[in-house]
Amino acid sequence: MSSKPLYVMLCSGEHEKIQLAAMVASVAAVSDRPVEVFVTMNAVLAFERGKSPAERYQGGHFHEMFKTQNVPDAIELFGQGKMLGEMKMWACSMVLDLKHWDCDKHLTEDLFDGPMGLAKFLADAESGELITI
Question: How many CB atoms within 10 Å of residue 65?
């Protein structure tokens, strides 16, 4: 029996929430569970192309510990999930429009499968389990 797809809506720009989303999504993907991640609101800002980890991540109780304890970078975890499992990542089309950004030019290289609207993501998520972080 195959697993229901996991849908992750990432809307927080807080470091530990992005980290949690990356861990959940990548572990599920490498465990043969289809995963789709919808990145929206402040979370999109962490995926701006060219940002260093110091510029990318903000706040949260564990933020400093993540940096000093060599916790794997969330962006790398998302990339590993895509490489080793069945994972797709979508950027919120409304946020991209507001920022005048293009997925292929302004967001982390080779990570996003394209833009998507919230209504489409929620319709797709009806076939699986949805978590919001």
Answer: 11
Contact 29, 81 (CB under 8 A): yes
Q: Is the dihedral of CA 96, 85, 21, 126 positive or negative?
A: positive
Which 3 state secondary structure label does DSSP give 85?
Answer: coil
Q: For residue range 22-74, what is the model confidence (pLDDT) as tens digits?
A: 999 999 999 999 999 999 999 999 999 999 988 999 888 898 888 889 899 99
Structure tokens at 54: 């110091």
Provide the token pair at 98. 């507001």
pLDDT value at 2 more than 80: no
Q: What pLDDT is attached to residue 127?
A: 97
Query: Does a structural domain hold residue 1?
Result: no
Q: What is the mean pLDDT of the chain?
A: 95
Residue 25 lies in a domain: yes
pTM over 0.85: yes
CATH number at residue 71: 3.40.1260.10
